[in-house]
Write a sequence for this structure.
């Protein structure tokens, strides 16, 4: 029996409701497999934890996480309690950086039963590979002068190493999918980082002659995800551009509540982290109406990542069937509670 | 008879076809007014001009432009002939900067007869006020090292002055519209420039207690323009975020071919510039199918800006009626040529 240790961080708001409720599905999947067992280490790190302890996680927190096989996260942040830059940089972004989760992957695909805001969603299915360690999300910069003379300077830092590994990952993924890769750029307006980004992309494209590549400026690409999302396969983007494109991906799917994300560690030193795209939605907590699909879809990504693709496939089928049968939460136009959705998926997997 | 001097720059690609063809509409509007006359100074500055002269505009070009009352531009750029950073920074962005067009305004509204990709566009009508002089579009930055050690650093520069004047403009506009203003931020990920942006916004919000304000992170806001565009009135954004949001605005309208933009000079020293959002589309040149609506809508913005709101209103009604009657180009699902659309609008204005 192989033991797999999962660090479980429910986090804030609806994360606290959804995450614990989904663990029984993981247990059942392990039973079906027969060869593995999940061990959960649950951590209460969150904005409320911060209010009590003055930190988002304890000193030895990172070491604990780093010893696990994967991190299963709910949602972080509740600006009414703690400013975002403290909660996010003290937990979510801190884990991404210190566990060297240098790549963020977010799929977007048309799901039957989820009403897309698009009149003709045309069965789109694309995947954004986002640089997750640097770029526009940088602590380099600051301010000078005050009052009417004040200036804020923000540095975006793009290294060859991070740019190249992100793109290489995307090229490899495109290889396994439809062989089509789009790079998000803005080299016509942003004249240092983005021409560099384009140059690395062109160099790598030479190494992957079988992949059909194109570069789109971020403004045009954002528009294309609305006007023709079915024309895209893999998209590779910087940290900020990936952030924007993946929320758009969630929007065209029809709900931020179903979108999943994987923060991938590439060097094998530390665990990867799996989190839904949605936030903590403190306004709907306690009502039992939170949508668990984003969390469960990210669990599917975690299973795939752990080499348990069969279980991942089983879970994903159960998710899709459940939605198609109309068992869905309010945000998807349904009337089911969070628990009803989870129980339905659970029952499907069991049977 | 008041003479108004317009600098006319058709630019590249379809700009060359559309711009000259629309001037007769301006002439007819002037005739209707009776009190004004447009004088056109046409300049051939473009990528082809660059290939011949090695510059996008001659040395005395800017002075000529600066002496006119407004600049009426088609489209700039043709990467097959000249790299974008040369053509755009040598003409479009150069004019924006040297004519101190510090604000860019782009409306997006549901137009009857233009098929929105949204299933329920709900008559949205919002307007993006974009900072147009600094921010993420900055020449500050560079590279160090080479090969696998190479690093590109891009500085985004936010001054109090530019940030405040952009926001103030947006607050004033919101005052004249529905009194609702949304600020595009990303202070949870971008920790120097965006918290500064938020701070200035909050300070100004205190000065405009009647305006209902909110801040949305750019990722969420991009998604909202797809899921609920009718919930927005005025949006204020940095140079990059404004760029992305306005292409999204064009996308939800249903075509980049109809979206207009105004680059506004605030200090009265230099002219403002009016340009459609679409590019030069060199692939469709010569076919007569280019959509003139973006150009004509920007002409309406120019008329409004010149204090000729009645003529602007007349033109806009003619545009909307023409589209509603089904006289539209291929990109809008119609079968009319560019000239047929222009002639139809022209005839409507005349009658
Ligand atoms: C061409 C490009 C530099 C420009 C910009 O990003 O400003 C364009 O996208 C626009 O929005 O006018
Ligand atoms: C909360 C925020 C810092 C984060 C990000 O921008 O990375 C979120 O939007 C995401 O995409 O995971």
């Amino acid at each position: 029996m192989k033991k797999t240790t999962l660090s479980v961080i429910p986090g804030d708001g609806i994360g606290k409701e959804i995450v614990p409720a989904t663990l029984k599905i993981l247990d059942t999947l392990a039973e079906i497999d027969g060869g593995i067992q999940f061990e959960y280490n649950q951590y209460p790190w969150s904005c409320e934890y911060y209010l009590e302890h003055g930190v988002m996680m304890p000193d030895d927190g990172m070491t604990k996480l780093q010893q696990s096989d994967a991190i299963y996260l709910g949602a972080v942040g509740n600006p009414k309690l703690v400013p975002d830059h403290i909660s996010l940089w003290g937990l979510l972004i801190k884990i991404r950086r210190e566990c060297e989760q240098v790549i963020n992957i977010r799929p977007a695909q048309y799901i039957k039963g989820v009403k897309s805001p698009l009149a003709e969603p045309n069965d789109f299915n694309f995947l954004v590979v986002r640089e997750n360690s640097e770029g526009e999300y940088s602590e380099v910069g600051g301010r000078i002068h005050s009052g009417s003379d004040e200036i804020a300077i923000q540095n975006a830092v793009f290294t060859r190493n991070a740019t190249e590994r992100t793109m290489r990952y995307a090229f490899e993924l495109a290889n396994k999918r439809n062989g089509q890769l789009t790079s998000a750029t803005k080299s016509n307006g942003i004249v240092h980082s983005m021409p560099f980004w384009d140059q690395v992309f062109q160099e790598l494209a030479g190494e992957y002659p079988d992949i059909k590549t194109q570069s789109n400026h971020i403004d045009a690409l954002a528009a294309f995800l609305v006007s023709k999302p079915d024309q895209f396969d893999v998209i590779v983007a910087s940290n900020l551009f990936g952030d924007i494109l993946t929320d758009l991906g969630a929007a065209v799917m029809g709900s931020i509540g179903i979108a999943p994300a994987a923060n991938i560690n590439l060097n094998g030193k530390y665990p990867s982290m799996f989190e839904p795209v949605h936030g903590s939605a403190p306004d709907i907590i306690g009502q039992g109406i939170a949508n668990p699909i984003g969390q469960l879809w990210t669990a599917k990504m975690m299973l795939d990542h752990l080499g348990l693709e069969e279980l991942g496939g089983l879970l994903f089928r159960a998710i899709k069937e459940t939605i198609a049968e109309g068992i869905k939460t309010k945000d998807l136009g349904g009337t089911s509670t969070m628990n009803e959705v989870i129980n339905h998926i659970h029952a499907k997997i069991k049977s």
Remarks:
- Chain B has a mean pLDDT of 97.
- The longest strand of chain B covers residues 2-11.
- Residues 116-138+158-253 of chain B form a domain with the Rossmann fold fold (CATH 3.40.50.2300).
- The first helix of chain B runs from residue 14 to 33.
